[in-house]
Design goal:
alpha+beta, 8-stranded parallel beta barrel, 7-stranded antiparallel beta sheet, 10 helices, Fn3_assoc_repeat, Galactose-bd-like_sf, hydrolase
Length: about 700
């Protein structure tokens, strides 16, 4: 018997030796990148002086004493992320305003000057301990741009910045990511200089040597940035990668002759990556949970719904990227209760959808198994929990098929595929068929697979057999997962719109039993006002609505409207097409860009007669929504007048981060003012020689 067993082992070894594992294709991930891929989702936490000044980017002159949260609780914040299914957090240790949330030795502008804990606190340490307690991984972001530091833009600052990184890498445990962005240089406080400082973003930070600090002190951490080098920015702050999304990437500079760098790259290339790119550099899809990255009381109740988050999950994680959701603790230092509830509901939705893999009940057959060795490369590995065990084909078999056969028909609406990315990203195109009514019917196609591909079907599919066809691959297959899942039944939240006359319409994509709405800011229910026809909202306000179909209730839609514009008139009728800026239609845009690209930008004004005195608490500006940046205003001045001739400045500032996050901008006044006329002046634009304005408006409440 011993001889027989020995012979059997020798035979298995011979078979394995005769058919070695597939050779890796292209570049492959590092150990740190493999850990990053396993996380799939994490949250980036923005809290600081901007939480109290109602800004997105601080100017650098803010008093650290603003930081005095009455209930700061890192455990509550990290727990909220964990309840949402997120596996880690990135703590913003320093934002562009320069205030360090740890007691650094590099600058006095740090947490030790805050009122919080009488200057003895360390927020970074609190997040570290919270992550360790809850089993979450920690990442840190220390902004390279520092609008407070007097040395920014000079050689001395680089030493300060690098020392800040060394402090963070030394004192706060193991990190999974060191996060960087492309915000570089511009106007700031700079120790009282109050000036604009420009840098060469391709050379100033000496990234090669700066990243070397990370490699030495935190070898297990990935480095994120516009150009990686480990994880790339996807190129938008909308939370999604391209339908085709390659984990490999070759970044290119936006200017000819320049080397690509953070802030100097063709961002749009990051959406899809590069097939057969030079580096393994998968995408991170960052998106704020609320409209802005920092907390603003005006955005309470406006966090993304659980199903909106689920949609982003499919479009990020489900395309081989990672979802990085921005959380913003409030002025008390905790996550708002409504945000917590939505995160938890999202986490439950993920569990409901992906706990049961229907494919585990199927008999799986393959048209080819590598070396006919099912023990090493068989289909049994397609439904286990190991992302690196895999079904493989012989070297010349690039377009095989897999068939799942069930004892009785199953219903599903989500398909999951994964490759063993230790062997590279190999598959370029697949198709899925369902066996229905005695014949095969194609129900889905997809391109790139990589670490994970989720195909969300538009309707439920019921079938007794399901077939996967590899349509295109340059090399043999190394597929680690084939899953079928069932997303719960749900009703889509209704759409809410308002005409120029103030008429509000609430509608759904498909018929439902009822729609209910509220106007007082409360969450609607089945006892709220039923919607039957459009109604007029004279003074603007918040409209919330739900759709109900039988026993199923949708999430609440939430829209904030300004004053009616029905009787508004422009003072300068020479502004051709300017009426599009006050027509309540975000798709129409007033554009003054000139064909002569050499022409310089000149400040542009738009004055409005509101046909009567109004109380103004907030000005609004909506940039163009067509994903173009030319003409988007990033510096502004608002004026008011009683007669349309004599103007008084009411608000002046910048629209921070509007290039990456072009949502409606709110300029809330310190105190309401009364006026009949207002004027918007575009003082500067991101690019171009004119403006592109979708809407401007005012709110009274």
């Amino acid at each position: 018997m011993k001889k027989i067993a020995l012979a059997s082992l020798l035979l298995q070894s011979a078979l394995a030796f005769a058919q070695p594992a597939p050779k890796p294709y292209g570049v492959t991930p590092s150990a740190a990148q493999l850990n990053w891929h396993k996380l799939e989702m994490y949250c980036i936490i923005h809290y600081g002086v901007d939480t109290y000044t109602d800004k997105e980017w601080g100017f650098g002159d803010e008093d650290p004493k603003l930081i005095d949260p009455a209930k700061f609780d890192a455990v509550q914040i990290v727990q909220a992320a964990k309840d949402g299914g997120f596996k880690g957090i990135v703590m913003v240790a320093k934002h562009h305003d320069g205030l360090c949330l740890w007691p650094t030795k590099t600058t006095d502008h740090n947490i030790s000057k805050a009122k919080w804990k009488n200057g003895k606190g360390d927020m970074v340490k609190e997040y570290q301990l919270a992550c360790e307690k809850l089993g979450m991984q920690l990442g840190l972001y220390c902004s390279p741009w520092d609008r407070n530091n007097a040395f920014y833009g000079k050689p001395e600052y680089l030493k300060i910045y690098q020392q800040q990184l060394r402090e963070l890498y030394s004192n706060y445990g193991k990190l999974f990511i060191s996060w960087h962005d492309g915000a570089n240089g511009g106007d700031g406080y700079y120790g009282g200089a109050n000036e604009t400082r420009k840098i060469d973003r391709t050379t100033y930070y000496d990234w090669a040597n700066t990243w070397a600090i990370t490699r030495k002190m935190q070898p297990g951490a990935t480095i994120f940035g516009d150009v990686g080098p480990d994880v790339r920015w996807v190129g938008n702050e909308e939370g999604h990668a391209g339908e085709t999304s390659w984990a490999t990437y070759t970044p290119k500079a936006s200017q000819s002759g320049k080397q690509p760098a953070n802030g100097e790259v063709l961002y749009e290339l990051g959406i899809e990556g590069t097939r057969n790119g030079k580096y393994w550099m998968p995408a991170e899809c960052d998106v704020p949970f609320r409209p802005g990255w920092f907390y603003h009381a005006s955005q309470d109740g406006m966090a993304k719904s659980p199903y909106t988050l689920l949609d982003l999950y499919y479009k990020s994680v489900g395309r081989g990227a990672a979802l990085d959701l921005g959380l913003s603790p409030n002025r008390d230092g905790v996550i708002d209760a409504d945000d917590v509830a939505k995160l938890k509901a999202f986490g439950e939705l993920l569990k409901q959808t992906f706990t049961t893999n229907l494919a585990k009940d199927a008999e799986i057959t393959a048209s080819n198994v590598r070396g006919k060795n099912s023990k090493l490369y068989g289909t049994k590995f397609l439904t286990d929990t190991d992302p690196f065990s895999y079904w493989a084909t012989d070297d010349k078999i690039n377009t095989p098929t897999l068939t799942l056969s069930f004892k009785k028909p199953v219903s599903f609406n989500v398909i999951q595929l994964r490759e063993n990315i230790k062997l590279g990203q190999r598959i370029e195109e697949v198709a899925v068929d369902a066996y229905q009514n005695g014949k095969w019917k194609q129900v889905a196609t997809a391109t790139s697979i990589g670490s994970k591909r989720l195909i969300r079907l538009p309707q439920n599919i019921t079938a007794s057999k399901v077939r996967l066809r590899i349509v295109k691959s340059p090399v043999s297959i190394a597929l680690s997962d084939f899953g079928l899942y069932k997303e719960p039944v749900h009703v889509t939240a209704p759409a809410i719109s308002k005409s120029r006359s103030g008429e509000v319409t609430i509608s759904t994509d498909a018929p439902v039993s009822n729609i209910y709405y509220t106007l007082d800011g409360s969450t609607p229910s089945k006892v709220s006002t039923p919607y039957s026809k459009p109604f007029v909202l004279t003074d603007g306000g918040i409209v919330k609505a739900i759709a109900v179909d039988g026993d199923v209730t949708s999430e609440a839609a939430n829209v904030k409207f300004g004053l009616n514009k029905e009787n508004w008139e422009l003072l300068n009728t020479a502004n051709n097409g300017a009426a599009q800026a006050i027509d309540e239609n975000y798709r129409s845009v007033w554009i003054t860009l000139q064909k002569d690209t050499s022409a310089a930008f000149k400040p542009t004004e738009l004055a409005v007669d509101m046909a009567g005195e109004q109380t103004i608490s907030t000005f609004t500006y909506l940039p163009r929504q067509d994903k173009k940046t030319e003409g988007i205003v990033d510096r502004y001045t608002f004026y008011v007048s009683d007669n349309g001739t004599d103007w008084k400045e009411a608000a002046k500032g910048e629209f921070s981060n509007i290039k990456a996050n072009p949502v409606e901008q709110e300029i809330k006044l310190n105190a309401p003012i009364k006026a009949r006329y207002f004027k918007f002046r575009a003082d500067h634009v991101i690019s171009g020689n004119g403006v592109a304005i979708a809407e401007i408006g005012v709110r009274s409440k």
